[in-house]
Amino acid sequence: MEQRIFFPHKLFLGCLCLGGSVFDASSSTRFYLSLNLTKSCWVFADAIEMDKEAKKEAFRKYLESSGVLDGLTKVLVALYEQNDKPSSAVEFIQQTLGGPTVLEHERLHAEMSDLQTKYNELRIAHERTCQELEQLRNLQPMAASKETMDAEIPKDGL
């Protein structure tokens, strides 16, 4: 007994098992399947929703065990307890967590740019020096062979 099933919404993320075959219904807004009702098993969207919740819970536990939640809670409490609220809450959080201020960030970025320029200049100078060294090495064997030839030829003409 076959029946045609219509999945009207692309957010349906269920799967249908037919004799070992799995069809994913998440890729299309209109997804039709021929279904043999005697050999079918459904994995409903509820199971997928539970999987999402399990992932969220695992991530929450990870944040808690690594101390992130405690750190963020302390920073937010410190922000709440400020009598004079800062103009930028994000900047306050960055400073409290130990990050650079906007001015420090700009200064560090400018310094990095200067250092990159110096690095490029030094790399070019290094390449030139290596080329000069290679040229000198190539000239040295030629000079040594010339000296050898001069030594083999007698100077008195005999």
From TrEMBL:
Coiled coil: 105-139
Nucleus recorded as keyword: yes
Designated name of the protein: c-Myc-binding protein
Family assignment from sequence similarity: Belongs to the AMY1 family.
Species assigned in the record: Protea cynaroides
GO cellular component annotations of the record: nucleus
Compartment annotation: Nucleus
Gene Ontology molecular functions: transcription coactivator activity
Alphabetized UniProt keyword annotations: Coiled coil, Nucleus
